[in-house]
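Late entry, calcium ion complex.
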Amino acid sequence: MNVVTLSGGVGGARFVRGVCDVVAPRDVTVVGNVGDDLEVLGMHVSPDLDSILYALADLSDEQRGWGRADESWQALGTVAALGGETWFLLGDRDLGLHLVRTQALHDGEPLSAITARIARKLGVDAVLLPATDDRLRTWISTASGEITFQEWFVARQHRDEVDGLRFEGAADAAPAPGVLAALAAADLILLAPSNPYVSVAPILAVEEIRAAVAARTVPCVAVSPLIGGRAVKGPADRMLARLAGGTSPRHVARCYEGLIDALVVDESDAHDLGGLGDVRPIVARTLMRDADARRRLAEAALGRVLT
Ligand code: GDP
Ligand code: CA
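Prediction complete; structure with ligand written out below:
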């Protein structure tokens, strides 16, 4: 069974690991968000692709919740001592990947090709594709003006309320090679429990990807990132309250109008399933606290096709 999952970083990566425990990883294609990409200290960083890579290669730091396990910070210490920019935390092991990717980009290799090469080297069997090889960047409108995604999320710790989003470059962005073919060959499309606004929307902002999902002939199942109306981590609940008018399953579903057939919601939200329209609710335990929980959530999302 071919499964395509659209995914952001940490939350999506955990889910994708679960999917790869249920379906042969070779049959899993992950389309990752690149709206969070940035240049820092002269390097190109793709945080969401890296979170997915590290999760699938079993290199993630589960305690910290992001980045690589057994990480050290010597290089950043030197950067700080020399007065360089340290607002975006880059560990030593992580830096190695950014160096390789940045050089390859300078040499003209597309992001998708570099990502495939790195995934292979790390022993990842799933296919990981950036949504696009073109430059696509998320901008956040706040009361104090429009700022880049990472300035809002990391430097300002997503303190500012979000009035709107803009995906710079999306209108001209083409899906990365392999994305449309994977969607066409999919038996099931999944939207990971990632932030709908800043992780999944930038992927769907690539017009041909959105159109392919909208025109699907196979089921598309989203997993809600909210549990009891609250984000497990990050600003998804505040964004839904402000931009969609609430944090119920119907507000999550509304982010994906016309794109999903089912929504996996947590048991703690099962009392509030009104207004879903044609979207079928799948009630499950959605907290991915360990490998078992991740696998069970993936099974719930995959269930309809597996049975
Ligand atoms: P980012 O790119 O690293 O910010 O990560 P994502 O956008 O992929 O994931 C962030 C979202 O994952 C947040 O909105 C969280 O609420 C959600 N999330 C994290 N862990 C879990 C979990 O165990 N279960 C569910 N349902 N959502 C989760
Ligand atoms: Ca992200």
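The longest strand covers residues 137-142. Will revisit in the morning.
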